[in-house]
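Thread: Modeling a multi-component assembly for a lab meeting

Hi all, long-time lurker, first post. My supervisor asked me to bring a structural picture of a complex we are working on to next week's group meeting, and I have zero experience with this. I have the sequence lines for every component (268 residues in total). Could someone generate the structure of the whole assembly? Inputs are pasted exactly as I received them:
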Amino acid sequence: MPLISSIFIRWSFIQLAIASSIGLIMLISKATGDFMWIWVDRPIHSEGMWVGWIINFVLGTAWWIMPKRPDFPDKYGNSLFAWIAFIFLQLDWMWRLIINPNYAPLLLRFTPVIGIFFFILGIWPRLKYMVHQH
Amino acid sequence: MPGISRFFIKAGFIWLLISMGFYGFQQMNPFFRIAYHHTLGIGWVTQMIIGVAIWMFPRWSNELPKGPMWTWWTVLFCLNIGLALRLLSENFLLQFPSIMPTIYIVSGVLLWISMLVFISVMWVRVSPKKTPQS
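Re: Modeling a multi-component assembly
Sure thing. I ran the full set together rather than chain by chain. Output:
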């Protein structure tokens, strides 16, 4: 497994752990009426599950398992694209986790789309190759 | 495909079926939106990911390629029982205030345990392989 896939997947595990822990506290809060402060972090729970856990995991696995290019210097293609995608995908969520769960500056809200764009740029030649092979 | 993966994937399909039912209900009553999101995100997507990851991810060790099997049975049990109890208790929190909040909290703890056990075992299996091209 390439390093970037391992980082994508392990980071998705960290986000899953954080998001599900927040979810558990929210659930206890709903049952008991305690810990009402946790509801401020609801966006971290939902974004952490859908984007943080699922999308990061799928992208990391895709980079590892999609067809390789033996004719390239790196058989996984240009890993720089995957690294840029990884960094851009985390910025909005990290802002919400550390600074403000309910508000992110306009520019940060569009960092996930930039991240996905770079990931597509990186993985595209590997999928194109598969078509030519069959 | 190992037997435990089949259990995860079959259970995932059943939760997908249930989530599509909640998809219909949540359009009539927004109360069911949480049930829809959790049956889809945890019951279907997360469970499919776990089933396929156990099957296809790098080995835990030569002796235990999938990792300790009891951990996967624990994840399967906690995730599915936790999700079912959650749906049951969430809908009757106010009708049965003496027992349902306790069941509701137990369901959240079961779900949380399933996520942490999954992460702790799979973390080891996604170590980056040290090859010149990775």
